[in-house]
Amino acid sequence: MKIKFKNTSLIGNRIREEREKIGQSRNELADKLGLSLSTLQLWETNEREPQASMIIAIAKTLGVSPNYLLTGETDITANEKANDVSHQTSNSLPNDSDENFVEIEDCRDVRISAGNGGLNDEYLEFNTTKVEKRWLDSRYLKAKHCAMYLVSGDSMYPTLKDGEEIIVDRSKTDLKDGKIFVLNNEGAMYVKKVQVTPYGIILISQNPEYSPIKLDASEMDNLIVIGQVVRGYRDF
């Protein structure tokens, strides 16, 4: 679910201006936030809007309030500003008691690369996020098996975009030809389309600028299948 805020046309400008004020490069800020450089660039050029949770994280990193990034206003206290973000999102987010939604694990802090592999060296504790129960039921999916991840990179474009949220069914670990999977290959996390061959598998990017990754049977011993992608901006 993407949350739209009022008066956000210049949010990217404010992120860039505050970053430059503290002498931080775009690369440095992206690293601190655990983002790809291209995602931050899209935000700073106002081509894409960050989510509410990221606005709070960006504000904390830059030493400003979330409300300032959202509106440019500086005449309310930091606590009021944080509350302001909550008020603006409360009508869009599902209520805890809403039976139409269920919780799944939120793994968006894990870097999964639609490119050359995202490394994750730290142990991460995960929160939960909510998705529509009706959608899960219609696909015969169980919430306990599903998790939300964030795509980093453009190798799966246009099927999956940089910064796109995807839902992964982690009970589906048998590789199927033509399906998209999240995989861990020697510590590097990928999201790729799988082609099964008599000799192993090929991890295929949708973007022709990226070469396929070929793994023979012996190399597959180091491959961990996290799960199958079942939803992005569309169902799979």
UniProtKB/TrEMBL annotation:
Q: Which Pfam families match?
A: HTH_3, Peptidase_S24
Q: Does the keyword Transcription regulation apply?
A: yes
Q: Cellular component GO terms, alphabetically?
A: membrane
Superkingdom: Bacteria
Q: Which residues form the signal peptide?
A: none
Q: What are the UniProt keywords, alphabetically?
A: DNA-binding, Hydrolase, Protease, Transcription, Transcription regulation
Q: Which residues form the HTH cro/C1-type domain?
A: 15-69
In alphabetical order, the GO MF annotations are: DNA binding; serine-type endopeptidase activity
Which Gene3D superfamilies does this entry report, sorted A to Z?
Answer: lambda repressor-like DNA-binding domains, Umud Fragment, subunit A
GO BP annotations, alphabetical order: proteolysis
Matches recorded under PROSITE patterns? HTH_CROC1, SPASE_I_1
Presence of keyword Glycosyltransferase? no
Give the matching InterPro entries.
Answer: Cro/C1-type_HTH (IPR001387), Lambda_DNA-bd_dom_sf (IPR010982), LexA-like (IPR039418), LexA/Signal_pep-like_sf (IPR036286), Pept_S26A_signal_pept_1_Ser-AS (IPR019756), Peptidase_S24_S26A/B/C (IPR015927)
What the entry lists under SMART domains is as follows:
HTH_XRE
* Descriptive protein name: Repressor
Organism from which the protein derives: Rodentibacter rarus
